[in-house]
Design brief:
By secondary structure, the chain is of the alpha+beta class. It has helices at about 65-75, 100-115, 120-130, 175-180, 195-200, 210-215, 220-230, 250-260, 270-275, 290; strands at about 1-20, 25-45, 50-55, 80-90, 145, 150-155, 165, 235, 245, 265, 305. A hairpin with a 4-residue loop joins β5 and β6 (about 150-155). α1 (about 65-75) runs parallel beside α2. It is globular and about 55 Å long.
Length: about 300
């Protein structure tokens, strides 16, 4: 069985407060994009999970989000089927593109599908949040307003602009470190989220975390300025970084490739395309996942309907 585990960008992000447990309250616009990892899964007779991948910089052990997903849901339901799991990573760790969260979400959905488990929306939310705040978003994908710590999700229309370019500089940024350095006493920035939600204009958004990340990684600010000097509109950082993205016109793509040869150029994925593209080529009991994923719609946590 083979699955695609897609990346996300944060089209905009603002911090609204901090909880007593240390988690920051935020408002963000999550957006799935066509950049993806590939996860290959085969049954084995060992009753254990064998996890491997193509990047030596990623720990393929019990600390990996995939291992944690198996451990949580196997423990909850008393499962013991063994699998060999091989991951081809294209989403860099520490890039703000949600690769680890996406991997975990796909594994959770696979296990639920494979064993035909009956799971409530609240249990699904708890499983996801025990791994990471972004995991619940990847149960749905598309374009979502995320509030709270990112787990309160409202489906919104995918922006008209469908092409996206993502530069991944190869720097690993610690999400924990960035959030630990946020100074909520500084002058609050004017919120741009409401303007975007009423107009759908991506250019109105900004990422408030850029200030903190750029102080620690000034080279990222220099890269952003270089991208902007090419005439690109709305160059922004995703999450806590280090990835930077923009929405190039066709004529700008060649220029981008010449200046940044490794830049990824792809497209935004709406919810239906995301659901249909996760995919599987089954070898055993599992059904075709792209179609079967719709079973989760009634279980997904706290997702409101698209605005009309």
């Amino acid at each position: 069985m083979e699955f695609r585990s897609f990346a996300k960008v944060n089209l905009g992000l603002e911090i609204t407060g901090k909880r007593e447990n240390g988690y920051h309250e935020l408002r963000t616009v999550f957006q799935t994009i066509s950049l993806h990892d590939t996860i290959e899964i085969e049954e084995n007779d060992s009753n254990s999970i064998s996890l491997s991948g193509n990047l030596d910089t990623i720990p393929w052990d019990e600390s990996n989000t995939i291992s944690r997903a198996f451990e949580l849901i196997y423990g909850k339901f008393g499962l013991n089927q063994g699998f060999d799991v091989r991951v081809t990573k294209r989403i860099p760790p520490g890039s703000g593109l949600g690769g680890g969260s996406s991997n975990a979400a796909v594994i959770i959905m696979f296990i639920i599908d494979y064993f035909n488990l009956d799971i409530s929306g609240s249990d699904l939310l708890e499983l996801g949040l025990n791994i990471g705040a972004d995991v619940p978003f990847f149960f749905s994908g598309g374009t979502m307003l995320g509030e709270g710590i990112g787990e309160i999700l409202t489906a919104i229309a995918t922006p008209v602009s469908s092409d996206i370019a993502v530069l991944m500089p190869g720097l690993i940024v610690s999400t924990h470190e960035i959030f630990s350095r946020i100074n909520l006493t500084k002058k609050a920035l004017k919120s741009t989220m409401d303007s975007f939600l009423s107009s759908g204009d991506i250019s109105t958004l900004n990422n408030e975390l850029e200030f903190t990340t750029f102080k620690l990684f000034p080279e990222l600010e220099r890269i952003k300025m270089k991208m902007e000097s090419l005439g690109l509109n709305h160059v922004s950082m995703s999450g806590t970084g280090s990835a930077l993205f923009c929405f190039p016109a066709d004529a700008q793509k060649t220029v981008l490739k010449s200046v940044f040869p490794d830049i990824f150029i792809g497209e935004l994925l709406d919810k239906q395309t995301y659901n249909n593209s996760i995919g599987a080529w089954p070898s055993g009991k599992a059904s075709v996942f792209g179609a079967d994923i719709r079973r989760f719609e009634s279980s997904r946590p706290r997702v409101k309907n698209d605005k009309k």
